[in-house]
Amino acid sequence: MSHKSSSLKQLALQKFKKNFWGVFSFGFIVFVGLVSVFAYVFAPDDSQFANQMHLSIHSKKPGFKIEMLTIPSQLESNQSWLGKVFFGKKNTDTEVPISEYLIEEDLLMYKEYASDGLEGVEKTTSLSVFPNNEVGKYIKAKTFLFGTDKYGRDLLSRVLIGARISFFIGFVAVFISLLIGVFMGSVAGYFGGKVDAVIMWIINVTWSIPTLLLVIAITLALGKGFWQVFIAVGLTMWVEVARVVRGQIISAKEMQYVTAARALGFNDFRIITRHILPNIMAPVIVISAANFAGAILIESGLSFLGIGAQPPMASWGAMIKDHYNYIILGKPYLAVIPGLCIMSLVMAFMLIGNALRDALDVKN
């Protein structure tokens, strides 16, 4: 039995490897996952939430270049390197976009950048604020590959850090939905009768409420925030899992191996967890892949409505909300770039779901 199970797994793996789009989507999802975890390592703006604002260079096109003066602060952040890698740097320095500068004796004179042909403000600062008077290290040319948003923040950095929410909400939501859905579906399908009727009533009531409306209600009850959205999305996605698990268990509990397990005196919990569930996980895995995509879309919708991740936290949905009106103002990339990110990640999960469905289909 174990050898047969191993052979089926190897066969499914071989079929999956032959599916180009499935393998490509898996690689893309792994890539996005690594970017999400180490976003602050890759982001040009490694401050917390990539929230360095420069209003003088707002809404600049991709590839925009500017000289950036960093004025060191005397404050110490006392932050560990792990904190910087995973949560961003607590930036106490002041960044100033400048158009020109001049060093005379012990003073640095610079002109702040001003767009639309305006003259920037001329300012001076003492060289003593720079360690060892090395001003050159604190004036660097900076390129914004994706341009800047309406607050003058680096759009590329916001996109990279915003991937965290969209990616991790899939894992948290699917985990919660599997936890509740598999339990409810298993109990309903295995015991039947009144237990099944009660659980099916709960499922049907939950199913009848529009998903977005239910998420909004849960979010308002739990409060606005990062984890509240994760929990709210997860609590709305268990219904489909429960229905599939229930249907699979109803047919599986009549199989001979379940009858044999009962004859050997195994309790119901062991029969469900050790004998039935491992044999019905194929459709559940496929649904989980689809739920990943669904969770990303729901979170994006919530952020667009303003009840998802709250500012200054970066989120693809919130970025579209902030910039959708720029589509008709000649700067569509501010909304199109995060929109393409959502589309590509959702498409990857849908394609990997289709590939898993084909690989796990024993009839082919």
TrEMBL record:
Its main location: membrane. Pfam families: BPD_transp_1 (PF00528), OppC_N (PF12911). PROSITE patterns: ABC_TM1. It is found in: Cell membrane. It is a multi-pass membrane protein. Residues 163-353 form the ABC transmembrane type-1 domain. The chain crosses the membrane at residues 20-43, 165-191, 198-220, 226-245, 276-298, 333-356. It comes from the Bacteria. Keywords: Cell membrane, Membrane, Transmembrane, Transmembrane helix, Transport. The keyword Cell membrane applies. InterPro entries: BP-dependent_transpt_permease, MetI-like, MetI-like_sf, OppC_N. PANTHER family: D,D-DIPEPTIDE TRANSPORT SYSTEM PERMEASE PROTEIN DDPC-RELATED (PTHR43386:SF1), OLIGOPEPTIDE TRANSPORT SYSTEM PERMEASE PROTEIN APPC (PTHR43386). Belongs to the binding-protein-dependent transport system permease family. This is ABC transporter permease. It comes from Flavivirga amylovorans.
